[in-house]
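Sharing a chain and its predicted structure for anyone who wants a worked example. Both blocks are below, sequence first, tokens second.
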Amino acid sequence: MSSEHPAPPFDPELREVLAGFGESLPSTLTPEMIPALRANSTISVEELLTGRSIEHTSRTVPGPEGAPDLTLSVFARPDHTPGGPGFYHTHGGGMIVGDRFLGMGTVLDWVEELDAVAVSVEYRLAPEHPDPAPIEDCYAGLVWTAGHADELGFDPTRLVLAGASAGGGLAAGLALLCRDRGGPALAGQMLMYPMIDDRNETVSSQQIDGIGVWDRGSNETGWNALLGPRRGTDQVSSYAAPARAKDLSGLPPAFVDVGSAEVFRDEDVAYASRLWACGGVAELHVWPGGFHGFDGIAPEAELSTTMRETRTRWVRRLLAG
């Protein structure tokens, strides 16, 4: 923790939940921990859909040129009426862990409530597959999804990106790629505490060091795995680290949220500010006392409930417009 910049306090309810995990939820993740993290970060689709009236199918689609095929998961209600919204989900996990089922709860809420179709992509992970493999996998899956909107049963003009943490960074990178390559038209981008700046130089990245969830050291582990020796240099693409983009004009409306007590706070606030400065549309929420991923770790907490409701209200407004 920086002595010059003491960390803001955790929300009392969240602090109590976090304390209950003890050493089973370490603040700092190191490269040596990646295999065990991967083994413990999986969830079956059956577990994911327990208690939900949602059907799941998987599709194998072409990957980027010269790369393996991709697996996409498609979720829809059994009584789905075609022509509603679509969500394209990129999962979190610091670029090093997780699969297409990780963190799908929020998006599945929208499948149920809005009769949406959600597609989640299985992208390759670092360090075995460094940048640009993850973002190019996600882009290839998005192009296929948008091109098969009729078959999948959603309106291609109502397609929204959604991702949390590393997935939020990938979603932001996808929005930039779609703009620059003339890719699929997007209705919006839901960026949930996105991981977007490899430099790890902000005040919040210094404050959250050895405390909370996904601290400064974890951030270094994730970005080093993705970028290797390029990290922190001028050789890093804005599609991998969207905070590096010089021009944020011409992007779809964005929702950005982040906790006040997490590494990503300052980079995410700055990203929303730069979207406004470039004439864009963004809604920003900084959740007081929130640590990284608190809505998944403490889903019943009052702050978590408010966060999910706020996201859903934005989605409803976006799609109504």
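Comments welcome. The first helix runs from residue 12 to 21.
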